[in-house]
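User: Hey, quick favor. My workstation is busy. Could you predict this chain's structure for me?
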Amino acid sequence: MVSRTEIERLRTEADTIMTRLQRVRDELDQARHESGDHWEDGALAITLETPQGDDIEVTLELDADAAENAQQRYERAKELEADFERQQAVVGQLAPMPADPVAYLICYHLETVEGNYPRSIAGHLDAERKAVERLCDELTTAGLLERVESGTVKQRRVKAKQADEVRQHHTYYRLSREGDHLLRFLREREGRQNVLRHLPDGRTIAHRLARGGPDYPRMTAEELGMEFEYVRHLYRALRQVGLVTTYEGSIIKGTERKLKPKDETHRKHTYYVTTDTAEELLRELDD
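Assistant: No problem, here it is.
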């Protein structure tokens, strides 16, 4: 969780370095010509006086000059502030949800079935079992899921081999009342808009599709330097919420796809496009 304190600390360090620029240059130059522990991790800790007159310890990178050390802090503070504002913008109903696309997929899966256990959920979602187990715990702690510890669980559309009921050999989970309310909230315009704020990279993906036309997860992952599995689940979560949908045509015209311009593309992958609602919400967020 990003804190305002961390943002202000980074900015104070950056301001201090810039106002004590010659002192920082001298300290770095001296350290580069001396032996010491600072060579092990490439960092040098020094004490500087802030513009307000207080002492502060700053850890400098030996490979960066004084101005670069300050600029790195300014840039990091800017990134954290954007994250902080995103967190603050998320309304209360969505705040308990882990900021992970698989968490959304787990909730939607459990909306479809009456109950299921992590290994089975992971199989249905094609996700890592340990990640699903961890997210089920987090969702339960947040009050969005509840455990079904004993007895029998009625099954509906969970497995290819269906039965009226299944004897429990695992810890099953199901949506709680709060989880059900959250999914209802996500069907509303305000809920969908907050998903774009809440899911890391969700807004980036939606922007990419809105501006560039149809795209598929592997290309998105490669071009944006993201993990393929993460992007694949992110697309699926955005689809569940109603922010993206699959492109149904067999051929994508060049006028539709600005990401990789050519006269036409024969669809060999599952391509996604933004929904009208997503494009409207993006315009509102950008204003």
